[in-house]
Write a structure and sequence with these properties.
Blueprint lengths: L1 E5 L4 E7 L5 E6 L6 E7 L7 E3 L7 E2 L4 H9 L1 E2 L2 E2 H7 L2 E7 L4 E7 L3 H12 L6 H19 L2 H13 L13 H4 L4 H11 L5 E7 L3 H11 L10 E2 L12 E6 L5 E7 L7 H19 L4 H8 L8 E6 L4 E8 L3 H14 L5 H18 L3 H12 L8 H7 L2 H11 L5 E8 L2
Helix pairs in contact: 1-7, 3-8, 9-12, 9-15, 12-14
């Protein structure tokens, strides 16, 4: 296996690409009692239109297939995979987002047996007309639950405001109507397209034997030929925002808001995407973080509370910032924040250096937790970013970089507002 060692974090990651195209990464952590493995595919809710390798036609599937597939993968003819992990003393889970589906477990014993189970079940789908129909009712219930969640709705309403046609505006689980059109043939088509080892990655971390880990994976993964590139088809998204404001009334006691900013500098991954993401996050921390003057002002005036926060999502083909929380006057909060971004008085070198040191410390603490390492690795990997590039890229960011990024990204022209008001 190839080895990458980082002297500053004193950690190493070993890598091997198998003959079938699966990328395997192992990080040994001597003395740790917990082990963690995550098996992920580049297939998320955005991937509903594509040309599969070997096809000369476009396949378009209903919204929600990636999430539906994640649900179904845990079911086998003999029963539930969760029970098998539990019997081996492990805790298993999975998640689907806009770009990724991942299956994972954490354990303190029987690591290799659990790893074998993980590789086996993700490589062996079991779909029938009956179990697919049964799942529709379960997922429909989940969709209704999210539709009734004000925090979920204020977030997706913000994405609806930002985006005209890009699929990130759609709910990850789809709609009750879209999942009603899913059948086992659609699931198998997506499975064999996106769950091919060449489109997947497996990351394992803990006090584990590297050679034995690789052996278990090689013995249990599907022995198939590489399939070639999946051509994903996404619509051309206009630069401007779709709507300036989306308002909804729900059962809340205090209004909820998301002030969103559309990132128009997109179309690249790797170190450049990492650098951009860190510049935005540092700029946001300086502007509206808990130690900022703006946050203190908003809090002292009773305009925000402890729910106030921010987040930047930076992917290869899209990106956005969300600033939000509860407020008795969301529009006033928006105006104050927009004014602050125009004036840029929060941009000073001393604050920049302090926040940059904070981010360095935060990254180094990641290596104290096998879960944090694994989630960070997969999140960055799906953007073509190497985990070990994080510190070098962070160190090269300067004050001017952050000031220019704030100027280009956090401006009124690219902003939209989502508000949930109490039902009158």
């Amino acid at each position: 296996m190839q080895q990458v060692y980082d002297e500053k974090v004193r950690e190493k990651i070993l890598f091997e690409e198998l003959e079938n195209g699966l990328k395997v990464y192992v990080m040994p952590k001597k003395g740790y009692t917990k082990q963690f493995a995550i098996f992920a595919t580049r297939f998320g809710s955005n991937d509903s239109k594509f040309i599969a390798p070997g096809d000369d036609y476009v396949t378009e599937v209903p919204d929600g297939v990636a999430h539906f597939l994640e649900h179904k993968m845990f079911e086998e003819e003999e029963g539930s995979i969760f029970e098998k992990f539990s019997q081996l003393g492990a805790s298993a889970n999975a998640y689907t987002n806009f770009t990724t589906t991942a299956y994972l477990f954490s354990s303190t014993e029987n690591f290799y047996e659990n790893l074998k189970l993980l590789v086996h079940f993700v490589q062996n789908p079991y779909f029938t007309d009956e179990n697919v129909e049964k799942e529709k009712g379960i997922i429909a219930q989940e969709i209704r639950m999210y539709q009734d969640d004000p925090n979920w709705r204020v977030y997706f309403n913000a994405l609806e405001a930002l985006y005209h046609v890009y699929p990130v505006k759609k709910d990850i689980a789809g709609t009750i109507e879209s999942i009603s059109r899913i059948d086992k043939d659609i699931l198998y088509k997506c499975y064999y397209t996106f769950y091919h080892p060449e489109n997947m990655v497996l990351f394992a971390v803990g006090d584990i034997d590297v050679d034995k880990t690789l052996q278990v994976i090689e013995e249990n993964v599907r022995q198939v030929k590489k399939q070639g590139e999946i051509k994903r088809i996404y619509p051309d998204e206009p630069v401007e925002v779709h709507k300036k404001e989306v308002v909804q009334n729900m059962q809340v006691s205090i209004p909820l808001f998301n002030l969103a900013f559309k990132d128009t500098d997109v179309g690249f991954g790797g170190r450049n995407l990492l650098k951009k993401s860190l510049e935005v996050q540092i700029g946001l921390e300086m502007a509206v973080g808990r130690s900022s003057e703006l946050y203190e002002k908003l809090y002292q005036e009773g305009l925000v509370d402890s729910t106030f926060g921010f987040d930047y999502t930076g992917e290869i083909d899209y990106g956005y910032t969300i600033i939000g929380g509860q407020s008795k006057d969301p529009l006033k909060v928006r105006d104050i924040i927009i004014k602050a971004f125009k004036e840029k008085s929060f941009l000073d070198r001393e604050t920049f250096e302090r926040i940059k040191r904070k981010y360095i410390g935060k990254f180094l603490r990641t290596f104290n937790s096998v879960e944090s390492i694994a989630y960070s690795f997969i999140n960055l990997y799906m953007k073509d970013i190497d985990l070990m590039d994080y510190l070098p890229v962070l160190h090269q960011i300067n004050f001017k970089d952050v000031a220019e990024r704030v100027e280009s990204h956090l401006n009124e022209e690219t902003s939209a507002m989502s508000i949930i008001y109490p039902v009158k």
